[in-house]
Write a structure and sequence with these properties.
The chain has a five-stranded mixed β-sheet. Helix 3 crosses helix 7 and helix 4 packs across helix 5. Strand 1 and strand 2 form a beta hairpin. It is of the alpha/beta class.
């Protein structure tokens, strides 16, 4: 028998939550998810995606939590979502993460994604994190990216967008391997941090970066 987390990891997201909201009279249901809470460098990125029940596509069956997909699968699906769905991205910078904390920075990115959607949402499904400041009816859904198709779609768009930003950062600061580690604290990244010090997009409030600034190691 699979452990609960493994079962969720292998689960196929559905439209159950979206259908429930549509039946409650909410015409525009947005799924929201974020990526980048754990890295020690770079922004946190959120995306909002609206799946139109009147324009269902066969490729929706391929949507998964972005962590379950290969880079090529993510890029293919992100392109389809951007071409055929209402979507938007919100970004909170590394400076905002340091100033406001990762949870508030994540909420800011999510609110920005919702605020710039081309369709005004009437209901929101999030991956666990509530957004009371929006004033919108919503359902924070634990493991939402594994359970809800629109949240899974948002996770894909957010991941593809942040990966692109980190590859651009790699061009500016190649010593840290951002195109490979995307800002996460891998062995390679921590070794580079020790050798080269802190670069402008490192999160100074995160322990490994703070320790390097304080001269505790490296």
């Amino acid at each position: 028998m699979l452990a609960p987390d493994m079962a969720l990891y292998r689960s196929i997201p559905t439209l159950s939550e979206e259908i429930r909201a549509w039946r409650e009279g909410h015409r525009v249901v947005a799924g929201v998810d974020e990526v980048g809470r754990g890295p020690i460098a770079g922004p946190v990125v959120a995306a909002a995606v609206v799946l139109d029940p009147e324009r269902a596509r066969e490729w929706w069956s391929d949507l998964r939590d972005s962590k379950q997909l290969s880079p090529s699968q993510r890029e293919r699906l992100a392109a389809l979502i951007r071409d055929e769905c209402a979507w938007a991205v919100g970004v909170a910078s590394h400076d905002e993460v340091d100033a406001a904390g990762i949870v508030e920075a994540t909420r800011r990115a999510m609110r920005r994604a919702l605020a710039t959607l081309p369709l005004a949402p009437s209901f929101v499904i999030t991956d666990a994190l509530p957004l009371p400041e929006t004033g919108l009816p919503q359902r924070p859904l634990t493991h939402g990216d594994a359970l809800s198709l629109s949240v899974a779609a948002a996770s894909i768009v957010a991941k593809a967008h942040r990966d692109r930003l980190m590859c651009e950062s790699h061009a500016a600061w190649p010593a840290y391997g951002f195109e490979r580690n995307k800002g996460y604290g891998t062995v390679e990244h921590l070794r580079a941090l020790a050798e080269h010090g802190v670069c402008p997009i490192h999160r100074r409030s995160f322990a490994p970066v703070a320790a390097r600034l304080e001269g505790a190691w490296g």
